[in-house]
């Protein structure tokens, strides 16, 4: 069973990523040691897509 979007967000936040917002159902996460933001799309209760 694939993880939920909320699980991915929790893992990113525990890893030190900051949610910088987004438009609609998109969320952009940034980290000081990562050059480009990570974008997660979808509602928190949806299954995460395989990227």
Summary?
The chain has 51 residues and is an alpha+beta fold.
* Overall radius of gyration: 11 Å
Strand sequence of the main sheet, in spatial order? 1-2-3
Oligomer: single chain
Largest sheet: 3 strands, antiparallel
How many strand units?
A: 3
Give the count of helical stretches.
Answer: 1
On the 0-100 scale, what is the average pLDDT? 93
Give helix % range: 10-25%
Choose one word for the global shape.
Answer: globular
In words, what does this structure look like?
The protein is built from 1 helix and 3 strands. The radius of gyration is 11 Å and the shape is globular. The protein has a 3-stranded antiparallel sheet, with helices on one face. The chain is of the alpha+beta class.
Jot down its keywords.
3-stranded antiparallel sheet; single chain; 51 residues; alpha+beta
Q: Could you give the topology of this structure?
A:
Layout: H1 5-14, E1 18-19, E2 26-30, E3 38-41
Antiparallel strand pairs: 1-2, 2-3
């Amino acid at each position: 069973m694939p993880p939920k979007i909320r699980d991915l967000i929790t893992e990113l936040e525990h890893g030190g990523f900051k949610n910088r917002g987004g438009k609609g159902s998109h969320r952009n996460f940034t980290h000081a040691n990562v050059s480009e933001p990570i974008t997660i799309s979808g509602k928190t209760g949806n299954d995460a897509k395989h990227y």
